[in-house]
Amino acid sequence: MASKLLVLSGAEVGAIIEKHLPINSVLENQASVFKALHARLEEIDNPLRTAVRAPNHTGLFMPSRLGPHTTCKVVCVPNAESKQRGLPASTMLLDGESGRTRAFINAAKLTALRTAAGSMLTTRALEALRRDGGKGLSHIVLFGAGQQAVFHALLLVQITRQQSDAEMHLNFVVRKREEDLQQDIRNNLDWLRHQVKDLHVAITVLQTSGESQVEAAVRQAKVLVSAVPSTAPLFPSSWVASGTHVILIGSYKPHMQEVETSLIHRAKGALIVDDADACAHEAGDLIKANVDAKDCISLGALLSHSTFSDTSKPPSRDAALKALQELGGSSRDHDISLFKSVGVGLQDVAITSLVVETAETMAGIGTRLDF
Protein backbone atom coordinates (compact mmCIF):
# COMPACT_ATOMS: atom_id res chain seq x y z
CA MET A 1 0.00 0.00 0.00
CA ALA A 2 1.36 3.41 -0.95
CA SER A 3 2.34 5.78 1.84
CA LYS A 4 -0.10 8.55 2.57
CA LEU A 5 0.45 12.29 2.42
CA LEU A 6 0.55 13.92 5.85
CA VAL A 7 -1.18 17.30 6.12
CA LEU A 8 -0.64 19.43 9.23
CA SER A 9 -2.78 22.47 9.96
CA GLY A 10 -1.51 25.59 11.66
CA ALA A 11 -3.16 24.55 14.93
CA GLU A 12 -1.55 21.11 14.76
CA VAL A 13 1.88 22.56 14.06
CA GLY A 14 1.36 24.95 16.98
CA ALA A 15 0.49 22.07 19.30
CA ILE A 16 3.64 20.18 18.31
CA ILE A 17 5.78 23.26 18.89
CA GLU A 18 4.28 23.98 22.30
CA LYS A 19 4.24 20.44 23.70
CA HIS A 20 6.82 18.35 21.88
CA LEU A 21 9.74 20.57 20.78
CA PRO A 22 11.99 21.63 23.67
CA ILE A 23 13.91 24.81 22.90
CA ASN A 24 17.31 23.14 23.15
CA SER A 25 16.25 20.58 20.54
CA VAL A 26 15.14 23.37 18.23
CA LEU A 27 18.40 25.26 18.71
CA GLU A 28 20.46 22.14 18.01
CA ASN A 29 18.33 21.43 14.93
CA GLN A 30 18.98 24.89 13.55
CA ALA A 31 22.65 25.00 14.56
CA SER A 32 23.25 21.91 12.42
CA VAL A 33 21.87 23.82 9.43
CA PHE A 34 24.29 26.71 9.72
CA LYS A 35 27.24 24.44 10.36
CA ALA A 36 26.40 22.42 7.23
CA LEU A 37 26.04 25.62 5.21
CA HIS A 38 29.43 26.84 6.41
CA ALA A 39 31.08 23.50 5.61
CA ARG A 40 29.57 23.62 2.10
CA LEU A 41 28.62 19.96 2.33
CA GLU A 42 27.74 18.25 -0.94
CA GLU A 43 24.48 17.04 0.56
CA ILE A 44 23.01 20.53 0.62
CA ASP A 45 21.50 22.64 -2.13
CA ASN A 46 20.35 26.10 -1.14
CA PRO A 47 19.59 28.34 -4.16
CA LEU A 48 18.57 31.96 -3.74
CA ARG A 49 14.86 32.47 -3.30
CA THR A 50 12.60 33.58 -6.14
CA ALA A 51 10.33 36.58 -5.52
CA VAL A 52 7.02 36.95 -7.33
CA ARG A 53 5.31 40.31 -6.88
CA ALA A 54 1.54 40.59 -6.58
CA PRO A 55 -0.59 43.70 -5.90
CA ASN A 56 -0.87 43.07 -2.15
CA HIS A 57 2.12 40.92 -1.35
CA THR A 58 5.41 39.44 -2.50
CA GLY A 59 5.49 35.66 -2.80
CA LEU A 60 8.83 34.12 -1.87
CA PHE A 61 9.58 30.62 -3.21
CA MET A 62 12.37 28.84 -1.36
CA PRO A 63 13.43 25.34 -2.46
CA SER A 64 16.20 23.61 -0.51
CA ARG A 65 17.77 20.21 0.09
CA LEU A 66 19.52 19.01 3.23
CA GLY A 67 20.67 15.41 3.16
CA PRO A 68 17.77 13.10 2.28
CA HIS A 69 15.14 15.81 2.66
CA THR A 70 13.95 18.40 0.14
CA THR A 71 11.40 21.14 0.79
CA CYS A 72 9.85 24.04 -1.03
CA LYS A 73 8.35 26.77 1.11
CA VAL A 74 6.13 29.56 -0.16
CA VAL A 75 5.67 32.57 2.09
CA CYS A 76 3.73 35.72 1.20
CA VAL A 77 4.92 39.00 2.71
CA PRO A 78 2.30 41.78 2.65
CA ASN A 79 3.27 45.10 1.11
CA ALA A 80 3.55 48.12 3.39
CA GLU A 81 0.22 49.45 2.10
CA SER A 82 -1.59 46.13 2.52
CA LYS A 83 -4.15 45.67 5.28
CA GLN A 84 -3.23 42.00 5.48
CA ARG A 85 -1.25 41.03 8.55
CA GLY A 86 0.94 38.02 9.22
CA LEU A 87 3.02 35.88 6.90
CA PRO A 88 0.98 33.10 5.25
CA ALA A 89 3.33 30.21 4.54
CA SER A 90 3.16 26.59 3.39
CA THR A 91 5.90 23.98 3.05
CA MET A 92 5.99 20.81 0.96
CA LEU A 93 8.37 18.07 2.12
CA LEU A 94 9.55 15.48 -0.41
CA ASP A 95 10.66 11.95 0.36
CA GLY A 96 14.38 11.56 -0.28
CA GLU A 97 14.18 8.17 -2.01
CA SER A 98 10.97 8.25 -4.02
CA GLY A 99 10.59 11.98 -4.60
CA ARG A 100 6.94 11.73 -3.59
CA THR A 101 5.30 14.44 -1.52
CA ARG A 102 5.63 13.21 2.04
CA ALA A 103 3.98 16.10 3.87
CA PHE A 104 2.29 19.44 3.32
CA ILE A 105 2.16 21.74 6.31
CA ASN A 106 1.08 25.19 7.39
CA ALA A 107 4.45 26.83 7.99
CA ALA A 108 3.45 30.23 9.40
CA LYS A 109 4.55 29.34 12.92
CA LEU A 110 7.53 27.31 11.70
CA THR A 111 8.88 30.29 9.77
CA ALA A 112 8.74 32.37 12.93
CA LEU A 113 10.20 29.58 15.06
CA ARG A 114 13.19 28.79 12.86
CA THR A 115 13.99 32.48 12.35
CA ALA A 116 13.86 33.11 16.09
CA ALA A 117 16.01 30.04 16.73
CA GLY A 118 18.74 31.42 14.48
CA SER A 119 18.61 34.70 16.37
CA MET A 120 18.77 32.90 19.72
CA LEU A 121 21.94 31.10 18.66
CA THR A 122 23.70 34.46 18.30
CA THR A 123 22.07 35.89 21.43
CA ARG A 124 23.30 33.00 23.55
CA ALA A 125 26.74 32.77 21.92
CA LEU A 126 27.47 36.46 22.40
CA GLU A 127 25.66 37.04 25.68
CA ALA A 128 28.89 37.77 27.58
CA LEU A 129 29.45 40.78 25.29
CA ARG A 130 26.25 42.49 26.42
CA ARG A 131 26.52 45.39 28.83
CA ASP A 132 24.92 43.25 31.56
CA GLY A 133 27.59 40.60 31.04
CA GLY A 134 24.95 38.05 30.14
CA LYS A 135 23.28 38.23 33.57
CA GLY A 136 19.73 38.10 32.28
CA LEU A 137 17.57 39.95 29.81
CA SER A 138 15.61 42.35 31.98
CA HIS A 139 14.54 44.66 29.14
CA ILE A 140 13.76 43.67 25.55
CA VAL A 141 12.33 45.86 22.80
CA LEU A 142 10.67 44.38 19.73
CA PHE A 143 9.57 46.46 16.75
CA GLY A 144 6.52 44.71 15.35
CA ALA A 145 3.93 42.45 16.97
CA GLY A 146 3.49 39.74 14.35
CA GLN A 147 4.44 36.11 14.81
CA GLN A 148 8.10 36.78 14.04
CA ALA A 149 8.34 39.26 16.91
CA VAL A 150 6.23 37.12 19.24
CA PHE A 151 8.34 33.99 18.69
CA HIS A 152 11.51 36.00 19.26
CA ALA A 153 10.03 37.20 22.54
CA LEU A 154 9.04 33.67 23.57
CA LEU A 155 12.44 32.17 22.85
CA LEU A 156 14.21 35.06 24.57
CA VAL A 157 12.14 34.34 27.67
CA GLN A 158 12.86 30.62 27.44
CA ILE A 159 16.64 30.94 27.13
CA THR A 160 16.69 33.54 29.91
CA ARG A 161 14.65 31.34 32.24
CA GLN A 162 17.29 28.64 31.93
CA GLN A 163 19.60 30.98 33.85
CA SER A 164 17.55 33.52 35.78
CA ASP A 165 14.13 34.06 37.39
CA ALA A 166 14.45 37.85 37.45
CA GLU A 167 11.54 39.88 36.11
CA MET A 168 11.60 40.57 32.37
CA HIS A 169 10.04 43.46 30.47
CA LEU A 170 8.95 42.94 26.86
CA ASN A 171 8.12 46.15 25.00
CA PHE A 172 6.43 45.75 21.61
CA VAL A 173 6.52 48.84 19.40
CA VAL A 174 3.75 49.01 16.80
CA ARG A 175 3.41 51.46 13.95
CA LYS A 176 0.76 54.15 13.85
CA ARG A 177 -1.46 52.25 11.44
CA GLU A 178 -1.47 49.38 13.93
CA GLU A 179 -2.52 51.45 16.92
CA ASP A 180 -5.98 49.91 16.95
CA LEU A 181 -4.27 46.56 17.63
CA GLN A 182 -6.05 44.56 15.01
CA GLN A 183 -7.44 41.20 16.03
CA ASP A 184 -4.50 39.14 14.78
CA ILE A 185 -2.04 41.25 16.77
CA ARG A 186 -4.19 40.94 19.88
CA ASN A 187 -4.32 37.19 19.31
CA ASN A 188 -0.52 37.01 18.97
CA LEU A 189 0.04 38.86 22.23
CA ASP A 190 -2.67 36.91 24.07
CA TRP A 191 -0.98 33.69 22.92
CA LEU A 192 2.37 34.97 24.17
CA ARG A 193 0.90 35.97 27.53
CA HIS A 194 -0.46 32.46 27.92
CA GLN A 195 2.93 30.93 27.07
CA VAL A 196 4.85 33.05 29.60
CA LYS A 197 2.31 33.18 32.43
CA ASP A 198 3.85 32.61 35.86
CA LEU A 199 7.30 33.45 34.44
CA HIS A 200 7.46 37.02 35.79
CA VAL A 201 7.20 38.65 32.38
CA ALA A 202 5.63 42.08 31.87
CA ILE A 203 4.36 42.80 28.36
CA THR A 204 3.81 46.38 27.19
CA VAL A 205 2.64 47.70 23.82
CA LEU A 206 4.07 51.07 22.80
CA GLN A 207 2.84 53.16 19.89
CA THR A 208 5.25 54.86 17.54
CA SER A 209 3.39 58.12 18.18
CA GLY A 210 4.69 58.03 21.75
CA GLU A 211 8.28 58.77 20.77
CA SER A 212 9.54 59.57 24.27
CA GLN A 213 8.28 56.22 25.59
CA VAL A 214 9.84 54.34 22.68
CA GLU A 215 13.15 56.14 23.17
CA ALA A 216 13.22 55.33 26.87
CA ALA A 217 12.50 51.66 26.17
CA VAL A 218 15.17 51.40 23.46
CA ARG A 219 17.78 53.02 25.69
CA GLN A 220 17.10 50.39 28.37
CA ALA A 221 17.05 47.41 26.02
CA LYS A 222 19.60 44.63 26.46
CA VAL A 223 18.33 43.00 23.27
CA LEU A 224 16.55 44.85 20.47
CA VAL A 225 14.61 42.98 17.77
CA SER A 226 13.33 44.62 14.59
CA ALA A 227 10.78 42.57 12.65
CA VAL A 228 9.27 45.20 10.35
CA PRO A 229 9.56 45.20 6.52
CA SER A 230 10.46 48.88 6.57
CA THR A 231 12.03 51.06 3.90
CA ALA A 232 13.25 53.70 6.36
CA PRO A 233 15.05 53.53 9.73
CA LEU A 234 12.66 52.93 12.62
CA PHE A 235 14.68 54.71 15.32
CA PRO A 236 17.90 56.74 15.70
CA SER A 237 21.13 54.87 16.23
CA SER A 238 21.89 57.19 19.15
CA TRP A 239 19.09 55.59 21.18
CA VAL A 240 20.85 52.22 21.24
CA ALA A 241 23.21 51.87 24.20
CA SER A 242 26.64 50.30 23.95
CA GLY A 243 26.55 46.60 24.73
CA THR A 244 23.13 46.02 23.19
CA HIS A 245 22.56 42.97 21.00
CA VAL A 246 20.54 43.96 17.90
CA ILE A 247 18.58 41.49 15.78
CA LEU A 248 17.31 42.55 12.34
CA ILE A 249 14.92 40.18 10.57
CA GLY A 250 12.29 42.40 8.91
CA SER A 251 13.98 43.63 5.74
CA TYR A 252 14.60 41.18 2.91
CA LYS A 253 15.08 43.34 -0.21
CA PRO A 254 17.93 45.69 -1.22
CA HIS A 255 15.76 48.81 -0.91
CA MET A 256 14.53 47.95 2.58
CA GLN A 257 16.05 49.39 5.73
CA GLU A 258 15.18 49.03 9.41
CA VAL A 259 18.06 50.92 11.05
CA GLU A 260 20.43 53.78 10.30
CA THR A 261 23.69 52.91 8.59
CA SER A 262 25.58 54.27 11.59
CA LEU A 263 24.13 51.49 13.75
CA ILE A 264 25.44 48.88 11.31
CA HIS A 265 28.91 50.42 11.48
CA ARG A 266 28.81 50.35 15.30
CA ALA A 267 28.65 46.55 15.09
CA LYS A 268 31.91 46.23 13.15
CA GLY A 269 33.81 43.25 14.50
CA ALA A 270 30.66 41.61 15.87
CA LEU A 271 28.40 41.68 12.81
CA ILE A 272 26.89 38.23 12.30
CA VAL A 273 24.82 37.19 9.26
CA ASP A 274 22.83 34.03 8.59
CA ASP A 275 24.08 33.66 5.00
CA ALA A 276 26.76 35.97 3.60
CA ASP A 277 25.79 35.40 -0.05
CA ALA A 278 22.08 35.94 0.55
CA CYS A 279 22.68 39.04 2.67
CA ALA A 280 24.95 40.50 0.00
CA HIS A 281 22.03 40.31 -2.46
CA GLU A 282 19.04 40.97 -0.19
CA ALA A 283 19.94 42.73 3.08
CA GLY A 284 19.19 46.38 2.41
CA ASP A 285 20.53 47.47 5.79
CA LEU A 286 23.96 46.06 4.96
CA ILE A 287 23.91 47.10 1.30
CA LYS A 288 23.07 50.72 2.16
CA ALA A 289 25.85 50.73 4.75
CA ASN A 290 28.35 49.48 2.12
CA VAL A 291 29.29 46.56 4.32
CA ASP A 292 31.90 44.30 2.75
CA ALA A 293 31.59 40.53 3.08
CA LYS A 294 34.89 40.44 4.97
CA ASP A 295 33.31 42.61 7.67
CA CYS A 296 30.68 39.94 8.38
CA ILE A 297 30.93 36.66 10.26
CA SER A 298 28.54 33.97 9.11
CA LEU A 299 26.52 32.24 11.81
CA GLY A 300 27.79 28.91 10.51
CA ALA A 301 31.40 30.00 10.96
CA LEU A 302 30.60 31.26 14.45
CA LEU A 303 28.96 28.00 15.53
CA SER A 304 31.67 25.88 13.90
CA HIS A 305 34.32 27.53 16.07
CA SER A 306 35.09 25.40 19.10
CA THR A 307 34.36 28.31 21.44
CA PHE A 308 30.73 28.53 20.31
CA SER A 309 30.02 24.93 19.27
CA ASP A 310 28.12 24.07 22.46
CA THR A 311 24.84 25.94 21.92
CA SER A 312 23.70 25.26 25.49
CA LYS A 313 26.72 26.86 27.17
CA PRO A 314 27.84 30.38 26.18
CA PRO A 315 31.55 31.18 26.49
CA SER A 316 33.16 33.74 28.76
CA ARG A 317 33.70 37.30 27.55
CA ASP A 318 37.43 36.82 27.00
CA ALA A 319 36.90 33.57 25.12
CA ALA A 320 34.18 35.12 22.94
CA LEU A 321 36.34 38.13 22.07
CA LYS A 322 39.31 35.92 21.22
CA ALA A 323 37.16 33.70 19.01
CA LEU A 324 35.63 36.67 17.19
CA GLN A 325 39.13 37.94 16.42
CA GLU A 326 40.07 34.54 15.01
CA LEU A 327 36.94 34.62 12.84
CA GLY A 328 37.90 37.98 11.36
CA GLY A 329 36.24 40.24 13.87
CA SER A 330 37.96 42.20 16.58
CA SER A 331 39.27 41.45 20.05
CA ARG A 332 38.31 44.92 21.28
CA ASP A 333 35.26 45.62 23.41
CA HIS A 334 32.50 46.04 20.84
CA ASP A 335 30.07 48.91 20.86
CA ILE A 336 27.17 46.61 19.95
CA SER A 337 26.72 43.16 18.47
CA LEU A 338 24.30 42.65 15.58
CA PHE A 339 22.70 39.73 13.78
CA LYS A 340 21.15 40.20 10.35
CA SER A 341 18.95 37.45 8.94
CA VAL A 342 17.17 37.23 5.60
CA GLY A 343 16.29 33.57 6.12
CA VAL A 344 17.96 30.42 4.83
CA GLY A 345 15.91 27.80 3.02
CA LEU A 346 17.87 25.02 4.71
CA GLN A 347 16.32 26.13 7.99
CA ASP A 348 12.92 25.16 6.61
CA VAL A 349 14.16 21.72 5.60
CA ALA A 350 15.50 21.00 9.08
CA ILE A 351 12.60 22.34 11.13
CA THR A 352 9.98 20.84 8.79
CA SER A 353 11.64 17.42 8.94
CA LEU A 354 11.77 17.63 12.74
CA VAL A 355 8.07 18.49 13.00
CA VAL A 356 6.98 15.88 10.46
CA GLU A 357 9.05 13.14 12.09
CA THR A 358 7.51 14.08 15.44
CA ALA A 359 3.98 14.08 14.01
CA GLU A 360 4.47 10.70 12.33
CA THR A 361 5.05 9.09 15.73
CA MET A 362 1.89 10.60 17.20
CA ALA A 363 -1.62 9.23 16.96
CA GLY A 364 -4.51 11.54 16.27
CA ILE A 365 -2.60 14.47 14.84
CA GLY A 366 -2.55 15.45 11.18
CA THR A 367 -4.62 14.29 8.24
CA ARG A 368 -3.37 11.42 6.09
CA LEU A 369 -4.51 11.36 2.48
CA ASP A 370 -4.07 9.16 -0.57
CA PHE A 371 -2.15 11.26 -3.07
Automatic annotation (TrEMBL):
For this protein, the record's Gene3D superfamilies field holds:
NAD(P)-binding Rossmann-like Domain, ornithine cyclodeaminase, domain 1
Signal peptide range in chain numbering: none
One Gene Ontology cellular component term attached to this UniProt record is: cytoplasm
Query: Which residue ranges run through the membrane?
Result: none
Q: Which InterPro entries match?
A: NAD(P)-bd_dom_sf, ODC_Mu_crystall, ODC_N
- Protein family membership: Belongs to the ornithine cyclodeaminase/mu-crystallin family.
The record, for PANTHER family, names: KETIMINE REDUCTASE MU-CRYSTALLIN
Q: What is this protein called?
A: NAD(P)-binding protein
Native source species = Acaromyces ingoldii
Upper lineage ranks? Answer: Eukaryota, Fungi, Dikarya, Basidiomycota, Ustilaginomycotina
